[in-house]
Amino acid sequence: MPIGRSTISPSAVLSLLGRIRGILSGTSPSVGSPLAEPVATTLASSSSPRLSASATSTTPAVPSTRQGPPSGTPTPPPSALLLGIIQGSFLAQILCTAAELGIADVLADGPLPLEELAARVGAQPDHLRRMLRPLLAEGIFSCSDNVYALNSLAEPLRGDAPDSVRALARFVGDPKAIGLWGLLPTVVRTGESAAELLYGMPFFDYIQKDRAFGEVFDTAMTEFSVAALEPTLAAYDFSGFGTIVDIAGGHGRLLTEILTRTPGTRGVLFDLPDVLAPVPELLAERGLADRCAIVTGSFFDEVPAGGDAYILKHIIHDWVEDRAAHILRTVRAAMSDSARLLLIEMVLDEEPERGFGTLLDLEILLTAGGRERTEREYRELLAANGFELVRRVRTAGVDEILEARPI
């Protein structure tokens, strides 16, 4: 499916992503404010020409949005602050329910009175009104004289929005996903797998068995990837590479965008056979069939050799240390000494931080059993498996690009 142009700012989409899980912490960034400013940090003495101008400029730190109470206002007791976090889980579930009902899709054709909106989404009018009230208070949807309408913050809840987060919200709110979070106390105590306890099998095996749930998850991951796509492309210059190999690249959204913007570059898209089945048609639609090879296989066995750059986007965080190490060693075996490895991942701060990353770390723990990592943890993981981390590129989104060279 071609990627369209959105009128919604990336920061608004990523803020809504944060609200879906991040509201549980009461720390979601406000709409319209960037989550991070582009900045590149050199980690080794060797320099690279591959950073774009937007990535090489150092910007001041983003000021904190946390504000204390006005002068003279009593500070809320700790119990009140904790209660606010607990109640945030209610709001997250309400948002997910709005996505499941398809309210934004119905309102895409124009505002509707409550009764008609309820009829269109198959809901009880009074229950629907009560459900929408907390969202209205958060600025999600608008209402005047009992007539409901889309607004900029509700727009990404449309399934057909170019920067849609509807499937992500549906996944987060699905009882099968909520059940994983209910097992967090057990996982913390015992170290057992939440997916094994709930489904009787690993998460990725289960979503292949329950395809209705699996398709929602697959679409959710595509949505998340698309939301982070433009910041990644803006922060890094891929034009210096002759051939780019995208490992487990799915339907090739990232790789096709890179190839479109760098006419002198060729690509290799590598993934499992069933994942790559629709890709030839997609490449033909983009006019890239003659510049992008399709190779099937598993990154646990071997990956295509001969690339100048190897991309692992949102892959390493899915796996515990030994499996992540296996993937890195497989990729290293295919690389020449002059090639580069590009990990595209969230990178956690060493100190506890407010926001989406620390929450996603637990989401990954409960689903796939993996983890988000700090820069130090990535550096150590890479060094143990044949790589040196030479550059960290921050983007205007939630992802960062870690460039490593073989050693």
UniProtKB/TrEMBL annotation:
SUPFAM superfamilies: S-adenosyl-L-methionine-dependent methyltransferases (SSF53335), Winged helix' DNA-binding domain (SSF46785). Pfam families: Dimerisation, Methyltransf_2. Keywords: Methyltransferase, S-adenosyl-L-methionine, Transferase. Residues 85-155 form the O-methyltransferase dimerisation domain. Residues 185-388 form the O-methyltransferase C-terminal domain. GO terms for molecular function: O-methyltransferase activity; protein dimerization activity. GO terms for biological process: methylation. InterPro entries: COMT-like, COMT_C, COMT_dimerisation, SAM-dependent_MTases_sf, WH-like_DNA-bd_sf, WH_DNA-bd_sf. Residues 42-78 are annotated as: Disordered. Residues 42-70 have a biased composition (Low complexity). This is Hydroxyneurosporene-O-methyltransferase. It comes from Nocardia pseudobrasiliensis.
